[in-house]
Amino acid sequence: MSKPIATTRSATGIPTGRLAVWWVIASEIVIFGGLLASYIMHRLGHPEFGDYASHTNTWIGAFNTLVLLSSSLSAVLAHQAAERKDGERAAKLLGLTMLGGLTFAGVKAAEWTMEISSGFTLTTNAFWSFYYTAAGLHALHVIGGVVIMGFVARDAAQGKELQRVELIGNYWHFVDVVWIFLFPLLYIAK
Amino acid sequence: MSSSDESRHEEQASRAHSEPPPAKRAQPAGHHAEPHGDMFYVQIWALLVVLLVVSVVGPMLGHPVITLVTAFGIALVKAYLVTKHFMHLAVERRYVVYLLVTMVAMMVLFFAGTAPDVMKHKGFNWKNEAAEQEVKRALDAIKHNPHKAH
User: Fold this and answer.
1) Contact indicator for B32, A166 with CB cutoff of 8 Å
2) How far is A116 from chain B (nearest CA, A)?
3) Which tens digit of pLDDT belongs to each residue from A86-95?
């Protein structure tokens, strides 16, 4: 199957695939940034948010932060392996990253089950609306990243399209950065 | 052109265009990563984990300033470390840095433009009665029933 000509040229000096991922990340900054900025202004204008946030579990949030940071490490090591043309190792490390993503999603699902069982739902109040929207949108990005990473890892294991290991890695690190900001906002500022 | 040829072409384009400045280059031409071994990234990860521990323990002291610094100051440091080293922004073209900074600036602009209306509930010629009532209702509810969802 032939590729579009756009994938073989570069007007900015950055390979098209990598440039495309940077633009995806740029647009994601506005999406998550708008959401987080809205949350921050509401948090500062509504003292009751502090009490609402006291019901989130800091340890679960911290554990998931550790999981995402560790999965970012395996993603960057996969990129290193791809740079050395070691597709097999890159695929294994991407597999570890996917495992991290699945762990994160599993813990998040268990956490939500507990919270919903305790009566905290999307419509309970503005804090919980923000909480489920921001964490849910982030979790969707984690799941999407895991799925795409599966395809990249499959090709990398065969030594194909190794440049894509860096591209999915950059996306994954961005998802990690978003969580780095969500964690203190939703779990620590009480 | 076959797929593998194009793949190679794209990779060659990547090599040709992503070279870091000579001063930073210590690897074969076009290697789009910092000139470090795997252990360097493990060290960055270890530093990130230490910062995570500080960001959890700091707020437990209960001092607002310490909470602000340890939770949010450290979040900024962690984000900086991830973008600089894991995403290799340190050796990426400036174009990308400008692109990302522009997006963050838009976020700040959005905050500056809308925050006064949300954070303040009254001004010289206006009053947001609904917000004031909601804050009063919520605080009353918390006072009388601290463990409920409200």
Assistant:
1) yes
2) 10
3) 999 999 999 9
**What is the ipTM for the molecules in this complex?**
0.93
Contact A46 B138 (CB under 8 A): yes
Q: How many domains does chain B have?
A: 2
SS3 B27: coil
CATH assignment of A14-188, among 3.40.50.150, 1.20.120.80, 3.40.50.720, 1.10.3720.10: 1.20.120.80
Please indicate if any CB of chain B lies within 8 Å of the CB of A133: no
Within this chain, do residues B107 and B129 fall inside the same structural domain, yes or no?
A: no
- Rounded mean pLDDT, B78-88: 96
* Residues of A with Cβ-Cβ distance to B85 under 8 angstroms: 76
Question: Is there a single domain that holds both residue B17 and residue B65?
Answer: yes
B45 to A120: CB separation less than 8 angstroms, yes or no: no
Q: What would the DSSP string read from start to end of A72-123?
A: HHHHHHHHHHHHTT-HHHHHHHHHHHHHHHHHHHHHHHHHHHHHHHTT--TT
The C-alpha of B113 sits at a distance from chain A's nearest C-alpha, in angstroms, of 11
**Domain interval for residue B75:** 3-113
Closest Cα of chain A to B107: distance in Å? Answer: 6
